[in-house]
Amino acid sequence: MRNDQMFVRMAMAIAEVQGMTHWQDALPAARAVLVAMREPTVPMLEAALADLPDWGNLPDDWRSMIDYAAGESLQ
Question: pTM for the full model?
Fold first, then answer.
């Protein structure tokens, strides 16, 4: 695993906050959080595109990015 993969970075952050010795133990939690983020909230979309009448492809683009990052953990 490369430490530039999003789920690895998340696992390292979780491990640090939780005081865990091995960040690898936080991988399941990191992946669960990543998958939970798959659907952007309305406030997130509004923050990204506050001045536009609609969000265009942003929700789909967001889901694609999360799917990609979540898929990294399967490698």
Answer: 0.75
